[in-house]
Write a structure and sequence with these properties.
Blueprint: H1 4-21, H2 48-52, H3 57-67, H4 80-96, E1 99-100, E2 115-134, E3 137-145, E4 153-157, E5 162-169, E6 175-176, E7 181-182, H5 183-189, E8 198-202, E9 207-209, E10 212-213, H6 224-227, H7 230-239, E11 244-248, H8 259-267, E12 275-277, E13 290-293, H9 295-301, H10 309-319, E14 325-339, E15 342-352, E16 363-369, H11 389-411, E17 419-425, H12 433-441
Parallel strand pairs: 5-8, 8-11, 11-13, 16-17
Antiparallel strand pairs: 1-15, 2-3, 2-12, 2-14, 2-15, 4-13, 5-14, 6-7, 9-10, 15-17
Helix pairs in contact: 1-3, 1-11, 3-11, 4-11
Length: about 450
C-alpha cells in the first residue's frame, strides 16, 4: 500500500493550494460567513488548518485498504472490479452530501446519478506471427495466439498490425554510467541505427550466476537492470523506439522459466479486456510490437552473423563490454490480428456547489483516475491481483478526503465561493480514455 504519511502530505498540499486559488474554507469555531462571502486564505490564513486536520492518514488508509484490496480485482476498465469501485466512490460522495453530476440518473439506482457511462471498444489479440527472412528465404518463424502457439515466442506488448525491418543485436540493452556499461553508446559508435528496424536484446545483465553480477555493482549482486526490467524500455524510449523489440527470454542464469511456459501464462490474458479506444474504427495509441523469444528462435535469426546467443553471452561476460552488431541481410516481420467488442465503463462525478451566487457558475475541477490494470496471469507467490494502491489508488482516496473537507466547511458556512467538481476518471490506464471522453465528448 502507499505510504500513509505521503498520502496525507499530498492531500494537505493540494487542499492548501486549492484554498488559496479559490477561497478559505474557514473553521468550525469561527462565525459562519454570509453566503458568497467566505474569506480568502489571505484574509484569515489560520482558518484553513481546522479543515486540513480532518484529512488524516487513518481515513486515507481506510479508503485505500478497501479500494486497493483484492475484492476489487485490480479495477480493470469495464470489469466487475472497476464497476464496484465506481459505486463505492458514488456511495462515499452521497454519504458526504455532494451533488451527483453524472449522466446516468435513474430512480432505481440512486448511485447511478454520480456516474457518467460511455462506450469503449476493445481490441484483443487473436494471433501474432513473427518471421525472419534472408534473400526471400525463411530463416525462422513463430506464432502465438488462441488457436495456434509453438512456444518459441509470445507478444508481451504492442499493437502495430504490421511491422517489417532490419535486425540489430543490441547486447543487453543497458545504458548505465555508474556501471560504466552502455550498449547504446556502443551502437552509436558502431554507426548502428536500430530505430529503422528490430532491436534484439538479452534479458537481465551479464551474470556469473543468478546471484552474482559481472558488472561492478556495490554488493556484487544483480543490479536494477535485472531487478527492474522496465528500465530497459525506458532507455529505449529516451533514445528512440525501434519498429519492433525482441528480448531473448530464456538466456542467462536468472531465467526462471522457459519461453514456452511464459507463453502459456501470457495466453491466459488474451481473454481479458485487451486494449481499448473510444471509437470502433480507431485503434488505441500505436506501440511497436515487443516479443519475448526463445534462444532457439534467436539463434536462427542470427545465423548469418555466425553467432549464437550462448556465444554472445559468453563473449560479453568475459570482456564485460558491449557486443553489438547489425545482422546481415535479415528482415524481421510481424503481423498482429485483433478482434474486439463494444463495452461500457463509467466516470464518477460529484459537486460541491459554490456559495457565491455569481462565482458558483465557475467550476474548479479536481480529478484522479480510479481504474488500474486488473488481474495478471500469475506470479511467484500466486498473487494475481494488480492492486493499484500507490498509483491511482492514493490519488483517488485523496479526492474523497478533500471532498469531505470542503463539504464540512460548506456545512459550517465556510464553503468555497466557486463550485468544485470532483471527477474520478476510468480508462486512463487504457490511453486516457475517461478524461478524453469528459473533455472532448461530454463535458457535463
Amino acid at each position: 500500500m502507499a505510504s500513509q504519511s505521503a498520502d496525507r502530505s499530498l492531500v494537505l498540499s493540494l487542499l492548501f493550494t486549492l484554498s488559496i486559488s479559490v477561497s478559505a474554507i474557514g473553521q468550525a469555531s469561527a462565525p459562519p460567513a454570509s453566503a458568497g462571502n467566505t474569506p480568502t486564505v489571505f484574509e484569515q490564513p489560520a482558518l484553513v488548518s481546522d479543515y486540513q486536520s480532518t484529512i488524516t492518514a487513518n481515513e486515507l488508509a481506510s479508503h485505500l485498504y478497501l479500494l486497493a484490496s483484492d475484492l476489487f480485482e485490480g479495477r480493470e476498465t469495464t470489469t466487475r472490479g472497476q464497476k464496484l469501485a465506481a459505486h463505492y466512490l458514488a456511495s462515499q460522495y452521497r454519504r458526504m452530501g455532494l451533488s451527483p453530476k453524472g449522466t446516468a440518473a435513474s430512480e432505481e439506482d440512486v448511485l447511478g446519478a454520480y456516474l457518467q457511462p460511455f462506450p469503449v471498444f476493445s481490441q484483443r489479440l487473436q494471433k501474432a506471427s513473427l518471421t525472419a527472412t534472408r534473400a526471400g528465404n525463411v530463416l525462422a518463424s513463430s506464432v502465438f495466439g488462441k488457436t495456434e502457439m509453438d512456444g518459441n515466442s509470445y507478444l508481451a506488448f504492442g499493437n502495430m498490425p504490421e511491422v517489417s525491418g532490419s535486425l540489430v543485436f543490441g547486447g543487453y540493452g543497458i545504458s548505465d554510467k555508474e556501471l560504466a556499461y552502455d550498449d547504446y553508446e556502443a551502437m552509436q559508435a558502431a554507426g548502428l541505427v536500430y530505430t529503422d528496424g528490430w532491436l534484439m536484446i538479452l534479458r537481465d545483465e551479464p551474470l556469473a550466476d543468478a546471484e552474482t553480477s559481472l558488472l561492478p555493482t556495490e554488493d556484487g549482486k544483480p543490479s536494477t537492470w535485472t531487478q527492474q526490467p522496465n528500465l530497459k524500455f525506458n532507455a529505449m524510449f529516451q533514445r528512440g523506439l525501434p519498429k519492433g523489440i525482441l528480448i531473448v527470454g530464456d538466456a542467462g542464469p536468472a531465467a526462471e522459466k522457459s519461453v514456452k511456459q511464459a507463453a502459456k501464462e501470457q495466453l491466459a490474458q488474451l481473454d481479458g479486456v485487451g486494449s481499448l479506444s473510444l471509437k470502433a474504427s480507431e485503434s488505441s495509441t500505436q506501440y511497436p510490437p515487443f516479443f519475448v523469444i526463445s534462444s532457439e528462435l534467436a539463434d536462427k535469426m542470427l545465423e548469418s552473423s555466425g553467432k549464437s546467443i550462448e556465444d554472445l553471452r559468453a563473449q560479453i561476460g568475459e570482456s564485460v563490454a558491449p557486443v553489438v552488431f547489425a545482422v546481415p541481410d535479415v528482415v524481421v516481420s510481424s503481423t498482429l490480428s485483433n478482434g474486439g467488442d463494444e463495452l461500457g465503463t463509467e466516470n464518477v462525478l460529484a459537486l460541491v456547489e459554490g456559495s457565491d451566487p455569481v462565482l458558483k457558475n465557475e467550476v474548479v475541477l479536481i480529478s484522479s483516475h480510479y481504474d488500474h490494470i486488473g488481474l495478471a496471469s500469475g506470479s511467484k507467490d500466486g498473487d494475481t491481483v494488480n492492486n493499484g494502491a500507490d498509483d491511482d489508488g492514493s490519488g483517488t482516496v485523496a479526492l474523497l478526503e478533500i471532498a469531505e473537507a470542503f463539504m464540512r466547511a460548506k456545512e459550517d458556512g465556510h464553503g468555497p465561493r466557486r463550485s468544485i467538481l470532483f471527477v474520478n476518471f476510468t480508462g486512463e490506464e487504457k490511453g486516457l480514455l475517461g478524461s478524453a471522453y469528459f473533455a472532448d465528448v461530454e463535458p457535463t
